[in-house]
Amino acid sequence: MEFLTLTEYFERLESTSKRLEMFEILAELFKSSSAEDIDKIVYMSQGQLLPPFHGLETGISEKLIERAIAEASDEPVKKVEHAYKETGDMGLAAEGLLRGRKGYGLTVLQVYEELTDIAMTGGTKSVERKIGMLANLFRGMSPKEAKYIARLVIGKLRLGIGDPTFLESLSLAQGDRELRPVLERAYNICSDLGLVAKTLLEKGMEGISKMRVTVGYPIRMALCERLPSPEDIIAKMGTAAIEAKYDGFRVQCHKDGDKIEMFSRNLEKTTRMFPEIAAAVLKYVRAKRAIIEGEALAYNEESGELLPFQVTIQRKRKHGIEELSKELPLKFFVFDLLYLDDEDYTEKPFTERRAKLEAIIDKNSIIEPSEMVLTGNPADIHRLFENTIERGLEGAIAKRPDAPYAAGARNFNWIKLKRSYKGELSDTVDVCIVGYFTGRGARTKFGIGGLLGAVYDPESETFKTLSKIGSGFSDEEFAQLKTMLDGIKLKHKHKNVDSDMSADIWVEPRYVISVTADEITRSPMHTAGRDKEGIGYALRFPRAKGFIRTDKKAEDANTVSEIIDMYEQQKKVSL
User: Fold this and answer.
1) Alpha carbon separation from 562 to 58, 483, 557 (Å, rounded)
2) Which pLDDT score, from 0 to 100, does residue 470 have?
3) What is the Cβ-side half-sphere exposure of residue 90, based on CA atoms within 13 angstroms?
């Protein structure tokens, strides 16, 4: 397929926010794709070259791409900077400055390989070489092609296509939407939509059904539902495995002989950040090949005290790792076994997974199984819950003893229990920032005085507003937020944001923050859970807790259905 043809599909996708229309456009694209091209097409449609767990980034900043456009168009950098400032879109700037070129008819494969070469270029003078390579690519392109390459390179393609839309469209392209669950299962165990699409075209549904858990490919993590009380949990599950809920980094650790890889909640590679965990897994986990999952928390080595998330989050950095690992060592509480020595454990019952997990871990000071009791008595859950709260943990999680590991799913096999009672909301809500307000009074100096927060609706793949957040940040954090958000600001509301409120500045849905509030109320101002009468849900007196949740992506924000459930639960008297 010619890359110009792919950009024509991009234009069609960009021009619509209707999901049914998106399904049809993508299905048409997939039908037109060869097995050689389709994985590249999927990746580029996602705005990337490979899934995040591969860690492949272009390494091109806005300043560098401005220089590449200037070189390709024979225009001064200042003119490129001005065009970018005027349009607010690097793609439109490139398109305008390269207007009149016809391009060389580059194929999808040629463009993908060029971009991959740019991303993998390193060493001495790599910056200059990257600029030269990108400029050469621009020279061989039409303005329309250059527009999408510029956006892709700096991570701002913004087609607004979520994973469910890709899966639905792959099913539709095969002429059978009933294939969706099988495709989704394959995706959940490999986290690579390009690989799923390529397997489908090369080997058909038989190949998809044979896809298996593979060490090195992260499994999409299981998620929790919520219930307000131990009594409700026992009524739902009968006997339940109750674990302490730790407030740290979710870590999925893959061991392959002497090689260790670790992945975050949003499936990014975090191996280099946590060297003590990698060393401990290598030494104390008795398996040649294994995938285990748990939570990593910073702790005080002298007292054994587990430290809050705001402290643990400091460990997520790319530089000064060795020094910080000595200052803030981590403890890894493991709670699940997903794979062991060529055997898939995700389909086995939780109690079997847990027993085997405990059996393969040698006693040590870094890795230990999470606290757990197996009970059918609500009083036992009360006791464990109160004990965890006293120690500064988040609460408890109940797991159905006979349930398999539900990769990528949120269901009642895992139930989260947090403190929520007497019509008050004591739980935190994760919201995605979709815009900000420039501020009044003392905050005028920062240019930002409040945020517009939204929750996610997986069914429509949109973000519905829930709250304005204006407190909980320090002056320094407000200044930092302004810088971060201005890096992703838009000229208009993102097409995947559903809002009746008008932010002063709209931004790309990317950053998630945790928010506390007095309660969830009904409100005509916000679109989250809006009913036929136009009444939605809102947070009363919201305030931020901590800073940006770098361990979460936009779609990891709480969902609309979770907000509705929390609203119903806060009416009940529980713990």
Assistant:
1) 36, 31, 10
2) 87
3) 26
C-alpha span between 500 and 454 (Å, rounded):
12
Residue with tokens 């080595």: 301
SS3 content of the chain, % helix, strand, coil (to 5): 40, 20, 35
Catalytic site residue from 130, 144, 245, 464: 245
428 HSE (CA, 13 A, CB side): 17
Contacts with 530 (C-beta within 8 Å, 6 or more apart), sequence order:
464, 536
* Fold equal for 223-417 and 429-569: no
Instruction: Say how far apart CA 300 and CA 307 lie, in whole Å.
Output: 7
Q: Is 245 a catalytic residue?
A: yes
Cα separation of 129 and 118, whole Å?
A: 8
Most confident of 192-201, 299-308, 464-473, 486-495: 192-201
Is the distance from CB of 421 to CB of 569 less than 8 angstroms? no
Q: Which CATH architecture has domain 429-569?
A: Beta Barrel (2.40)
166, 154, 199, 122: which is closest to 48 by C-alpha?
154
pLDDT in tens, 326-352: 888 899 999 999 999 999 999 999 999
Q: Is the pLDDT of residue 573 over 70?
A: no
Pairing of β 489-490 and β 505-507: antiparallel
Q: Which residue has the tokens 């000229």?
A: 491
Domain over 3-153 is classified CATH 1.20.58.630: no
C-alpha 462/C-alpha 494 separation (Å) is 10
pLDDT number for residue 419? 60
Name the architecture of domain 223-417. 2-Layer Sandwich (3.30)
Residue carrying the six token digits 């024509």: 8
Give pLDDT tens digits for 529-566. 999 888 999 988 888 888 888 888 899 999 999 899 88
C-alpha to C-alpha distances, 186 to 194, 211, 239, nearest whole angstrom: 11, 6, 31
3-state secondary structure string across 170-217: HHHHCCCHHHHHHHHHHHHHHCCHHHHHHHHHHHHHHHHHCCCCCCCC
| In the chain, domain spans | 3-153, 223-417, 429-569
